[in-house]
Write a structure and sequence with these properties.
The chain is of the alpha+beta class and 134 residues long. It has two helices and eight strands, in the order H-E-E-E-E-E-E-E-H-E.
Length: 134
Amino acid sequence: MKKLIPILLLLSLIMLSGCSKEQNKEQNKDQVILDAPKESSIVTEDLKIQLKGKLIGEGLDYVFYQLEDGHTYLASGRIDRNQDGAFDIQIKLDKPPDNQYIGLFLYADENNDGKFDPEMDGQTVLKNVNLQYE
């Protein structure tokens, strides 16, 4: 019985740490306010998109973005916030999408190295918006 108590305590700690990681992921989603573009916004032939919003919270000084059409990555990069947490940048797609749908995804830097690693940083989507190409 005495051998069982340390094992149960260890299992409890593991379960609690897993729960807190899931809660942190959910809280991170509320740290990005995206004013533009709005859901179903139109991307025109000039392939330019205005990204405007705010990053809230300590430790979220920048996010990574990716735009894709379901088949191809169309643009990716990093968005840095100003002192107030706001950002306002214009990006241009590298090429037109293969279809009329474009997904915008914002990611946190999971390992805090300043570089986007799709396998590491692409695990937690902070915000996503579906756009249309005309």
